[in-house]
């Protein structure tokens, strides 16, 4: 009986030691990753648009992701050992939700020893936003192209009208960052839908001294003609994209730079999160 108790006591001690070890060590050696390295949530928009493609950015750590077709996102911290501090970061960090023609959203995230702290502020005990983050529309952008389709031998101009309007008692400024000698009135990008290839065209009229426009509730229409696309565009469907930035409220340092070279009329500008309507254009084989 004594031997049996000794054996059981020994097995119990060994079991406790193994259980304690399993909390910090993996079977292959090294520490198991902490549990709270992710937070997630849902973003909704104030209008009928789906909240897909909203840019979610964790300042200071420069971590980012985009919302999916349901407006959901997950942002993930690197392991504490990769955060630049021996025991991981500790502090309160800003998580921003950015869609250029909507209000800027913000959530404060608490991090301790390299892990998110759940159940604090807007984050519930499961690491999710307790309530969806709602972004209010600040600027409506609708692009009208005339004619909406052409043949490959069409030699005439293409009229591009950008219809802009803000909600009541609000205003925004649109900026054309490529108002430079080679393109004094700005640039229009045509993106081929099936390949993603970009074709930049200089706007053919305007005032080279003015590259920004204030927009209010009364609305504004910017006429941005392209002289011709003959011999340049292969047949297919295109999206017509005005190369412009929206200035509505102060943005946190580093946010726009984290999107790439968006001030240039090239691929990086497609990283700029903005919601537009219209802009359909088609080139048909003659």
Give an overview in words.
The protein is built from one helix and 20 strands. Strands 3-2-5-6-7 form a five-stranded antiparallel sheet, with no helix packed on it. It is elongated. The N and C termini lie far apart (99 Å). Residues 1-30 have low confidence and may be disordered. It folds into two domains: 38-135, Immunoglobulin-like; 140-284, Sandwich (Immunoglobulin-like). A hairpin with a 5-residue loop joins strand 13 (187-192) and strand 14 (198-202). The protein has one helix at residues 2-22, and strands at 38-45, 55-58, 63-66, 72-76, 91-98, 105-112, 115-116, 133-135, 140-146, 149-151, 159-165, 172-175, 187-192, 198-202, 212-215, 220-223, 236-242, 245-247, 277-278, 280-284. It has 286 residues and is mostly beta strands.
How is the topology of this model organized?
Blueprint: H1 2-22, E1 38-45, E2 55-58, E3 63-66, E4 72-76, E5 91-98, E6 105-112, E7 115-116, E8 133-135, E9 140-146, E10 149-151, E11 159-165, E12 172-175, E13 187-192, E14 198-202, E15 212-215, E16 220-223, E17 236-242, E18 245-247, E19 277-278, E20 280-284
Parallel strand pairs: 1-8, 9-19, 10-20
Antiparallel strand pairs: 1-4, 2-3, 2-5, 5-6, 6-7, 9-11, 11-16, 12-15, 12-18, 13-14, 13-17, 17-20
Distance between the termini: 99 Å
Q: What is the tally of helical segments?
A: 1
* Class by alpha and beta content: mainly beta
- Total strands: the figure is 20
- Mean pLDDT, as a whole number? 87
CATH class of the largest domain: Mainly Beta
Number of domains: 2
Tell me the CATH architecture of the largest domain: Sandwich
State the major sheet: 5 strands, antiparallel
Give the overall shape. Answer: elongated
Order of helices and strands: HEEEEEEEEEEEEEEEEEEEE
- Please tell me how large the radius of gyration is: 27 Å
Which ranges are low-confidence, i.e. pLDDT below 50, for 5 or more consecutive residues? 1-30
Instruction: Estimate the helix proportion, in percent.
Output: under 10%
Quote the CATH topology of the largest domain: Immunoglobulin-like
């Amino acid at each position: 009986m004594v031997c049996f108790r000794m054996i059981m006591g020994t097995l119990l001690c060994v079991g406790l030691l193994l259980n304690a070890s399993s909390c910090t060590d993996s079977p292959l050696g090294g520490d198991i990753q902490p549990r709270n390295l992710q937070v997630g949530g849902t973003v909704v928009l104030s209008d009928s648009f789906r909240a897909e493609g909203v840019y979610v950015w964790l300042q200071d750590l420069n971590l980012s992701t985009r919302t999916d077709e349901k407006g959901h996102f997950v942002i993930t911290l690197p392991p504490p050992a990769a955060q630049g501090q021996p025991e991981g970061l500790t502090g309160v960090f800003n998580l921003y939700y950015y869609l250029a023609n909507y209000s800027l959203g913000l959530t404060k995230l608490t991090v301790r020893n390299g892990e998110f702290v759940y159940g604090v502020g807007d984050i519930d005990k499961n690491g999710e936003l307790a309530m969806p983050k709602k972004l209010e529309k600040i600027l409506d952008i609708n692009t009208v192209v005339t004619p909406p389709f052409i043949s490959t031998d069409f030699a005439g101009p293409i009229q591009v009208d950008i219809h802009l309007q803000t909600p009541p008692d609000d205003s925004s400024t649109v900026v054309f960052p490529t108002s430079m000698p080679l393109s004094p009135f700005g640039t229009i990008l045509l993106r081929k839908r099936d390949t993603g290839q970009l074709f930049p065209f200089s706007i053919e009229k305007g005032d080279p001294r003015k590259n920004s426009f204030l927009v209010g509730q009364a609305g504004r229409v910017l006429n941005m003609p392209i002289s011709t696309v003959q011999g340049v565009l292969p047949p297919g469907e295109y999206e017509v994209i005005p190369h412009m930035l929206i200035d509505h409220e102060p943005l946190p340092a580093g946010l726009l730079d984290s999107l790439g070279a968006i001030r240039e009329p090239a691929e990086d500008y497609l990283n700029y999160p903005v919601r537009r309507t219209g802009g359909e254009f088609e080139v048909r084989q003659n």
